[in-house]
Every structure is written in C-alpha cells, then in structure tokens.
C-alpha cells in the first residue's frame, strides 16, 4: 500500500510540474497582490504604488481607507478590483465620471465607517522596489507622496 501511495505522489508531483511549465508563468507568483505582482516572473516591478483615502468624519476623527477596505469581499489575497475601480472612477479627470461615482464612493465610505464623513483626501503613494532587501519596499517610507484631490463629502447647496 505504501509503495502505491509513493507512486501516486510521484505522478501527482510530475503532473503539477508539467502543468506549471505548460502555463509558463501565468500563475506566477501565485498571488494577485498588486503591490508585488506583475504577472511575469521575467520582468519584476521596479516601482509600485497605491491610492489611499484620508477621511475626516463629522466628529473630526481621521480614517485611512485603501481600496481593499471599501468592500468586505476583498481581502489581502484578492486583486482589489471593485475598490480600485470605484476610487479611480470617482477621482477621474472627467467631471461626468466624478458626478456619477463620487456620491457612490461617499455612500460606500459612510457605510464602511458607519459615520457621516465631512472631507475626503486622495493620496497617491509610490515606492521603489529593491528585491535585495527584505521586504522589497518599506511601506512606511514611500519614495513619492502626492495629494491627488481634496473634496467635501457633502458640499453645501
């Protein structure tokens, strides 16, 4: 019985190896974390970036939200598509896009924080990636920090 299990394990391992070779890196690095993954092991990223929202609520308390914080479907292993799309559309240069997506962004932020918000600041952070270091980026030391936009959540009529 033990020899049969070893033979089965050998075939399974060989099959997985052939599968990975056949897919040629499309599963690399087995994660969708945008901060590190380019989807290609031959061309690792030299720079990574993210957008954060700095929120001030009606009590004056400050909050920081990332795309993954906007939806409970997302977690650290997902590619954060819903949160990223909502943020990018709400911050787009196109006034029509802003008119459509900003109210929804504000509604989603208030739902997540369970409080009324007053002001939203969108910040773009970027880091240089150095794979010789561990970790490759120092999340507390971005190479560049840029204020994208600041707006009132509920502008006076």
DSSP helical segment count? 3
SSE string, helices as H and strands as E: HEEHHEE
Q: Tally of extended strands?
A: 4
pLDDT < 50 runs, ≥5 residues:
28-33
Mean pLDDT: 80
What count of structural domains? 2
Gyration radius, in Å:
21 Å
Q: Please outline the major beta sheet.
A: 4 strands, antiparallel
Widest sheet, order of strands = 2-1-3-4
What class would the helix/strand composition place it in? alpha+beta
Tell me the helix content. 25-40%
Q: How far is it from the N-terminal to the C-terminal residue, by CA?
A: 78 Å
Strand percentage = 15-25%
Instruction: Identify the overall geometry.
Output: elongated
Please, could you describe this protein's structure?
- The termini are far apart.
- The model is unreliable at 28-33 (pLDDT under 50).
- The chain is built from three helices and four strands.
- 32% of the residues lie in helices and 23% in strands.
- By secondary structure, the protein is of the alpha+beta class.
- Helix 2 (81-90) packs across helix 3.
- The radius of gyration is 21 Å and the shape is elongated.
Main features:
32% helix; 157 residues; 2 domains; elongated; 4 strands; four-stranded antiparallel β-sheet; alpha+beta
Could you provide a short overview of the structure?
With 157 residues, the chain is an alpha+beta fold.
């Amino acid at each position: 019985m033990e020899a049969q299990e070893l033979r089965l394990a050998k075939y399974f391992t060989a099959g997985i190896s052939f599968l990975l070779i056949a897919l040629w890196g499309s599963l690399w690095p087995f994660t969708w974390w945008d901060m590190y993954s380019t989807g290609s092991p031959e061309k690792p990223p030299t720079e990574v970036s993210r957008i954060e929202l700095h929120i001030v609520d009606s009590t004056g308390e400050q909050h920081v939200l990332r795309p993954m914080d906007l939806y409970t479907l997302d977690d650290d292993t997902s590619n954060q598509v819903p949160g990223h799309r909502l943020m990018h559309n709400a911050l787009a240069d196109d006034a029509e896009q802003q008119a459509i997506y900003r109210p929804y962004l504000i509604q989603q932020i208030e739902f997540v924080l369970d409080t009324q918000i007053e002001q939203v600041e969108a910040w773009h952070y970027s880091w240089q990636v150095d794979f010789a270091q561990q970790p490759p980026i120092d999340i507390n030391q971005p190479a560049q920090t840029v204020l994208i936009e600041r707006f009132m959540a509920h502008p006076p009529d």
